[in-house]
Write a structure and sequence with these properties.
- By secondary structure, the chain is of the alpha/beta class.
- It has five helices and seven strands.
- It has a seven-stranded mixed beta sheet, sandwiched between helices.
């Protein structure tokens, strides 16, 4: 897939106010500071599309970006650490869950995982929640440029092993780097294949 246009559409805290166009949506989410904004900018080839920050918890709303005038890339607030109150974090979680559980045009949720880390319980629990609720998902390992391939493979395999304790069939996985562009074409082609499949069903 070639990205010809990527346009910010709207930010809001109420999933019921998301765009009502019927176009397919692909959500991106992960722990705070996992490199989500950098990945989105790499995928769209636009360094200023999603706002990056050294401060975790920068994204606080549901952000819709229209891609090629055909589908939405949805930037969701991160889960986990953020310098906000517990009450505010609870509101975030409620907003995220409402979007994920009720959004009929959501085709897939890409869960971002820091490839430098061993399996984190918060990530495994979030993925488990998606699975229990039948929400289609894929796993995107980020920041592979920050370490050697053997370290990445070690952590990815450990994550697969942890998931295998609960999952009979593992979700589709991608290895990515926002710096080198690793995984960009595979991830975009995956989205394109889902879109093409949807078109044949209509």
């Amino acid at each position: 897939m070639e990205i010809k246009s990527a346009t910010f559409v709207v930010s809001n805290s109420d999933p019921s106010k998301c765009p009502d166009t019927g176009l397919p949506e692909y959500a991106f989410i992960g722990r705070s500071n996992v490199g989500k904004s950098s990945l989105i900018n790499m995928l769209t080839n636009n360094k200023s599309l999603a706002k990056t920050s050294v401060r975790p918890g920068k994204t606080q709303l549901i952000n819709h970006f229209l891609i090629n005038k055909q589908w939405y890339l949805v930037d969701l607030p991160g889960y986990g650490y953020a310098r906000v109150s517990k009450t505010y974090r609870a509101e975030w979680q409620k907003m995220i869950n409402k979007y994920l559980l009720q959004r009929e045009t959501l085709m897939n949720t890409f869960v971002l995982i820091d490839s430098r880390l061993e399996p984190q319980r918060i990530d495994l629990e979030f993925i488990s929640m998606l699975g229990r609720n039948g929400i289609p998902l894929s796993i995107v390992f980020t920041k592979v440029d920050k370490q050697n391939q053997s370290s990445t493979a070690l952590n990815v395999n450990a994550f697969k092993k942890a998931l295998s304790e609960e999952w009979e069939e593992l979700p589709t996985m991608f290895i990515t780097s926002s710096v080198s562009g690793t995984g960009r074409s595979k991830l975009l082609d995956y989205i394109d294949s889902i879109n093409q499949h949807q078109n044949t069903k209509e």
